């Protein structure tokens, strides 16, 4: 996606996968990878699960958003310094704005309080969600995330809740954002009971492989306004591309290319 957009713009750009599993390294080796990338002249890196927090001590500076979120997915090397940014939250915010404009944001339920859920929660509150209820099988994690958001956005804006309360909370909600692995090819299924989906509830899924998850399919069939996970995946890349190059990419072109990519076979991961 990055390379194809750069080709379109006439930029020379190499985007390489450095996979710790393939290298036989633990997640804690992220600092070594960062140092190696800097040494050999990379302009920056995207960082993914489970290294978005582990990378923090290896950075010289954080953008205010990355600092607030305590997670980095984009590192830019500039003037000898490694600067951490977070484009997951801005990517979700832009995808949401584009895909579900005018969606009611009075009461929103977020299912999943992991790394992606934290970025999505930051985006939802930044976009104006009045009351966000965060539900996770790990109720302590949901509570911690709600507490951290409360410190930044105001104590009454975010609450952690246990899965047993999901039915009641969803009945009163304007929208649902799904941020657990359910629905991915390796974890098929529906994360909430279909009986809880009604036409006046908007539904956003962040799972993007496949784009058409069981949740997206079911919610659409039941008449909900629906957003799939492709927009977040693309717009985080759009924001990272701009940070790496200083050039504004064509977001709609990247979205079209991404849709083509996810429809195809998975990547062939090899290091030689
Ligand atoms: N569209 C995009 O750009 C992105 C999409 N993703 C998607 O988001 C998913 C989550 O990613 P991360 O937050 O990094 O994973 P994570 O493992 O950090 O967090 C997942 C959270 O979901 C919770 N959970 C799992 N099953 C649950 C259930 N049935 N009910 C309630 N909570 C449950 C877990 O306890 C955990 O807190 C990924 O599997 C991926 O599909 C992730 C990153 C970017
Ligand atoms: O988590 C993700 C996914 C990603 O690693 C990818 O594979 O596209 C790119 C990261 O910037 C983003 O935060």
Automatic annotation (TrEMBL):
InterPro entries per UniProt: Aminoacid_DH-like_N_sf, NAD(P)-bd_dom_sf, Sacchrp_dh_NADP-bd, SDH_C, Shikimate_DH-bd_N, Shikimate_DH_fam
Keyword Transport: no
Assigned EC number: 1.1.1.24
Pathway: Metabolic intermediate biosynthesis; chorismate biosynthesis; chorismate from D-erythrose 4-phosphate and phosphoenolpyruvate: step 4/7; Aromatic compound metabolism; 3,4-dihydroxybenzoate biosynthesis; 3-dehydroquinate from D-quinate (NAD(+) route)
Record-annotated Saccharopine dehydrogenase NADP binding domain positions: 108-181
One annotated GO biological process: shikimate metabolic process
Keyword Amino-acid biosynthesis: yes
SDH C-terminal domain: residues covered: 231-256
Single GO MF descriptor: shikimate 3-dehydrogenase (NADP+) activity
Domain Shikimate dehydrogenase substrate binding N-terminal: 1-75
Catalytic activity: shikimate + NAD(+) = 3-dehydroshikimate + NADH + H(+); L-quinate + NAD(+) = 3-dehydroquinate + NADH + H(+)
GO cellular component: cytosol
Coiled coil regions in record: none
Protein origin, superkingdom: Bacteria
Keywords: Amino-acid biosynthesis, Aromatic amino acid biosynthesis, Oxidoreductase
PANTHER family per UniProt: BIFUNCTIONAL 3-DEHYDROQUINATE DEHYDRATASE_SHIKIMATE DEHYDROGENASE, CHLOROPLASTIC (PTHR21089:SF1), SHIKIMATE DEHYDROGENASE (PTHR21089)
Protein name stated in the entry: Quinate/shikimate dehydrogenase (NAD(+))
Organism in which the protein naturally occurs: Geodermatophilus sabuli
């Amino acid at each position: 996606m990055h390379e194809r957009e750069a080709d379109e713009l006439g930029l020379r750009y190499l985007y390489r996968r450095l996979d710790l599993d393939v290298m036989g390294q633990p997640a804690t080796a992220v600092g070594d990878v960062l140092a190696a990338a800097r040494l050999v002249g990379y302009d920056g890196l995207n960082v993914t699960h489970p290294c978005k927090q582990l990378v923090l001590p290896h950075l010289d500076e954080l953008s205010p958003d990355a600092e607030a979120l305590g997670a980095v997915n984009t590192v830019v090397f500039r003037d000898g310094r490694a600067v951490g940014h977070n484009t997951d939250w801005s990517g979700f915010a832009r995808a949401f704005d584009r895909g579900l404009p005018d969606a009611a944001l009075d009461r929103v339920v977020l299912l999943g309080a992991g790394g992606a859920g934290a970025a999505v929660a930051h985006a939802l509150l930044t976009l104006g969600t009045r009351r966000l209820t965060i539900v996770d099988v790990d109720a302590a994690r949901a509570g911690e995330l709600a507490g951290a958001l409360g410190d930044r956005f105001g104590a009454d804006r975010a609450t952690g809740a246990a899965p047993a309360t999901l039915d009641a909370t969803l009945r009163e909600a304007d929208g649902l954002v799904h941020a657990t692995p359910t629905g991915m090819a390796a974890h098929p299924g529906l994360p909430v009971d279909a009986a809880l989906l009604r036409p006046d509830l908007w539904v956003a899924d962040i799972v993007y492989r496949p784009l058409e998850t069981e949740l997206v399919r079911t919610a659409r069939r039941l008449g909900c306004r629906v957003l799939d996970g492709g927009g977040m995946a693309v717009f985080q890349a759009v924001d990272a591309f701009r940070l790496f190059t200083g050039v504004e990419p064509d977001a709609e072109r990247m979205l079209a290319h991404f849709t083509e990519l996810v429809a195809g076979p998975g990547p062939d991961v090899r290091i030689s």
